[in-house]
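Postdoc handover notes: sequence design on the structure in folder B. Input tokens:
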């Protein structure tokens, strides 16, 4: 079974193609292809409310290239999801319709709740009976999910993202609302563990020089990495730290969002499982096709 997931984010667009193989009663997921293209749709949308003609052309050509790869790999099922940039764009639905009619890819423009639901499908193996705050920071929004005794008890999406932060598009009132949501739901809890997802926290984790098989960061270490990043200019982060251009300017504001959420939860530890929306979509597709096989 070959599956494809496309994540159209505010800062970049990702394609993953996976082969699911059944062997001795177990299913193994083998990644066949992964592409990340740095197309920052959020820059257009958060400043001008729509995707520019230049980025519209780039986007449609990228969707055409993804469709070719999906067809070449003879994928059995695929899902294309677009998040905050396209859902807030005045021409997002029009572009999605064009891609569907002309290229043959159906783009699902999903809201924050649906985005969180899909990401959560990739997180269940990390959640037990303890209390968790899941923080997913994207370019345009931050999704927060609270788990207690293995059950999700609260969820909220906030228009607080790394790309928005660059142009100071986030109000103090919105910051307060996000922190209040966390405090209201977790003030009675002790030893809250955070789970961080998103490209920026993965890069922070990588910069921390983690020990083998260690998938967590202390809050103090995240702040240490933040200060380290702030000691370099944008150009230095690219050339001395080897960050991509579209990562070098958003990683610091993204890190500030993670630390603000952790502090509001009075949490000292964050698990960094290196999963995201594409992984949740892949799990959704697997479950859907497994159910179809059972019906047959």
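Designed sequence:
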């Amino acid at each position: 079974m070959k599956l494809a997931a496309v994540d159209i984010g505010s800062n970049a667009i990702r394609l993953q193609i996976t082969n699911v193989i059944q062997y001795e009663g177990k299913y193994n997921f083998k990644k066949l292809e992964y592409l990340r293209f740095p197309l920052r749709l959020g820059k257009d949308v958060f400043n001008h409310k729509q995707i520019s003609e230049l980025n519209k052309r780039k986007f449609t050509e990228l969707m055409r290239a993804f469709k070719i790869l999906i067809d070449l790999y003879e994928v059995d099922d695929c899902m294309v999801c677009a998040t905050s940039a396209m859902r807030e764009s005045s021409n997002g639905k029009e572009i999605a319709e064009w891609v569907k009619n002309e290229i043959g890819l159906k783009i699902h423009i999903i809201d924050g709740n649906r985005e969180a639901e899909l990401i959560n499908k990739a997180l269940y193996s990390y959640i037990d009976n303890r209390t968790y705050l899941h923080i997913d920071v994207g370019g345009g929004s931050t999704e927060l999910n609270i788990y207690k005794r293995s059950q999700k008890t609260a969820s909220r999406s906030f228009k607080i993202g790394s790309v928005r932060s660059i142009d100071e598009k986030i109000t103090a009132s919105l910051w307060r609302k996000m922190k209040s949501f966390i405090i209201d739901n977790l003030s009675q809890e002790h030893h809250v563990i955070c789970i961080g997802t998103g490209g920026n926290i993965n890069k922070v984790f990588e910069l921390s020089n983690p020990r083998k098989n260690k998938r967590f960061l202390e809050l103090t270490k995240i702040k240490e990495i933040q200060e380290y990043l702030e000691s370099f200019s944008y150009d230095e982060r690219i050339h001395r730290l080897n960050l991509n251009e579209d990562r070098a300017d958003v990683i610091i504001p993204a890190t500030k969002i993670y630390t603000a959420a952790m502090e509001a939860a009075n949490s000292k530890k964050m698990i960094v499982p290196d999963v995201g929306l594409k992984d949740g979509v892949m799990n959704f597709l697997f479950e859907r096709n497994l159910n179809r096989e059972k019906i047959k």
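Context for whoever picks this up: The chain is about 45% helix and 25% strand. Don't rerun without checking with the PI first.
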